[in-house]
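for the recovery benchmark. C-alpha cells below, seq after
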C-alpha cells in the first residue's frame, strides 16, 4: 500500500523567466474559465464530453500546450465535484502531469513545460524535502505562485505505508471548540489560544472591510493566509501526536462522524459570533491530517456515530447529566468527570465495536446490572507511562 503526499518545494526562477511564468499562469486560468463557461452553458460535467466540446477552441485561443489544456479540463471537473459555487479561476497555479513535468534527483532540478517550452529550474529545498523525494519518480505536480511573487512546485510522491490490521485497542478522540481534541487516554489540547487568535483576526477584518480600498483588500488576503497557516500548524501538531501515541500503543484511532454538524448547530438560536466560531471550526482539516499520517504509520482509523456520545455515561452507558465541562451520572454514581474525556471513552467503546465487530460490544443493560465497556476489547483510558 502507498500514501500520496504533496511535497512543497521552492523554485529558483531567474528574472528573465518570470514573464513567461506569469503568462503561463494567466493562460491556464483563462483556459479554466473558458471551460467552466462551456460546462455551465451545456450543463456538461463529464471529462470526455467536455474535452470534445472545448479542447480545440481553448488550445487555439490560449496557446497552451495540449497537456495543459487537458489538465485545465480535469481541474474544472474536479472543482465541480467539490463545489459548484466557483465563479472564476485565478492565475495562481498550474496542474502538471508526466508530459509537462520531470524530476531530476541527481541534480535536484525539475523540468517544467511552460507556454514557451520546457525549462529546468533548481530546487531550493531542505533535508526534509530531499528525504521525501529521494528514490521517487513522481508523475504529477502543481506549479504555484505565492502572493509575495515566489514560485513553488508541489510534487506528488507515493510513500509506502505499513498494512493496517484489526486491533482490540482503540483510542477515542472527541473533537470540540473549547478543547480541540480530547482522547480516551486523558490527553487534551486546549483551544483557547486558537480561539483568541481567530477572534482577533475577525475584529481586524471587520475594521479593514469598512475602508473598501485596494490596499484593504490586499491586507485581507494577507490576514487570511496568516490565520489559515496558524490553524494548519496547530492541526499538524495535534495529528502527529495522535498518530505517534497510537503507533506506540499499537492502537486504532476512533473519530466521531461530524458530517453536517455545522448545519445542525446553526439551526439552533445562536448569535453572530457563535455562528462564526462554529463555521471556523477546522475539525475536518484535523481529521484529514490525521488520516494521511495514520496511513503512512499503519495506524487504523474508524469513524463512529456522534449521536449521544457526550450525553452517555462511559461507565454504565445510561444518559447522564452534562453541565459544561462536567459530566455526572445518577444511575451509577459517576460524578464530575470531564465531559470531553467521558465522550472520548464512549467514542473508543464504539470504535472497538466498529474495528472488531466479532467482539461483543456495547449493548442494552439489564436492570440493576452495570457492565463496563466492550468485552474482549480494550479502551485505552490511561496515557502511556
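predicted aa per position
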Amino acid at each position: 500500500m502507498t500514501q500520496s503526499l504533496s511535497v512543497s518545494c521552492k523554485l529558483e526562477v531567474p528574472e528573465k523567466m518570470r514573464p513567461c511564468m506569469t503568462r503561463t499562469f494567466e493562460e491556464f486560468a483563462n483556459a479554466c474559465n473558458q471551460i467552466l463557461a462551456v460546462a455551465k452553458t451545456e450543463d456538461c460535467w463529464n471529462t470526455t464530453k467536455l474535452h470534445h466540446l472545448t479542447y480545440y477552441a481553448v488550445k487555439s485561443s490560449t496557446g497552451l500546450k495540449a497537456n495543459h489544456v487537458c489538465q485545465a479540463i480535469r481541474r474544472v471537473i474536479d472543482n465541480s465535484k467539490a463545489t459548484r459555487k466557483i465563479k472564476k479561476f485565478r492565475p495562481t497555479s498550474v496542474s502538471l502531469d508526466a508530459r509537462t513535468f520531470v524530476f531530476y534527483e541527481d541534480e535536484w532540478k525539475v523540468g517544467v513545460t511552460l507556454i514557451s517550452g520546457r525549462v529546468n529550474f533548481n530546487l531550493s529545498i531542505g533535508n526534509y524535502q530531499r528525504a521525501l523525494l529521494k528514490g521517487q519518480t513522481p508523475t504529477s505536480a502543481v506549479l504555484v505562485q505565492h502572493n509575495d511573487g515566489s514560485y513553488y512546485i508541489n510534487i506528488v510522491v507515493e510513500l509506502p505505508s505499513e498494512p493496517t490490521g484489526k486491533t482490540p485497542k482503540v483510542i477515542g478522540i472527541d473533537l470540540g471548540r473549547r478543547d480541540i481534541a480530547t482522547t480516551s487516554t486523558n490527553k487534551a489540547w486546549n483551544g483557547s489560544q486558537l480561539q483568541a487568535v481567530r477572534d482577533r483576526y475577525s475584529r481586524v477584518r471587520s475594521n479593514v472591510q469598512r475602508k473598501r480600498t485596494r490596499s484593504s483588500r490586499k491586507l485581507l488576503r494577507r490576514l487570511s493566509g496568516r490565520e489559515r497557516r496558524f490553524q494548519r500548524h496547530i492541526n499538524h501538531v495535534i495529528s502527529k501526536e495522535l498518530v505517534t501515541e497510537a503507533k506506540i500503543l499499537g492502537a486504532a484511532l476512533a473519530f466521531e462522524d461530524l458530517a453536517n454538524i455545522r448545519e445542525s448547530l446553526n439551526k439552533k438560536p445562536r448569535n453572530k459570533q457563535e455562528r462564526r466560531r462554529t463555521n471556523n471550526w477546522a475539525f475536518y482539516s484535523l481529521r484529514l491530517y490525521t488520516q494521511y499520517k495514520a496511513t503512512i504509520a499503519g495506524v487504523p482509523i474508524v469513524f463512529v456515530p456522534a449521536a449521544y456520545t457526550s450525553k452517555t455515561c462511559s461507565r454504565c452507558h445510561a444518559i447522564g447529566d452534562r453541565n459544561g465541562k462536567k459530566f455526572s451520572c445518577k444511575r451509577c454514581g459517576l460524578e464530575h468527570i470531564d465531559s470531553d474525556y467521558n465522550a472520548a471513552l464512549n467514542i473508543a467503546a464504539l470504535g472497538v465495536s466498529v474495528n472488531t465487530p466479532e467482539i461483543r460490544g456495547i449493548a442494552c443493560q439489564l436492570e440493576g446490572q452495570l457492565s463496563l465497556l466492550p468485552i474482549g476489547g480494550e479502551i485505552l483510558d490511561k496515557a502511556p507511562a
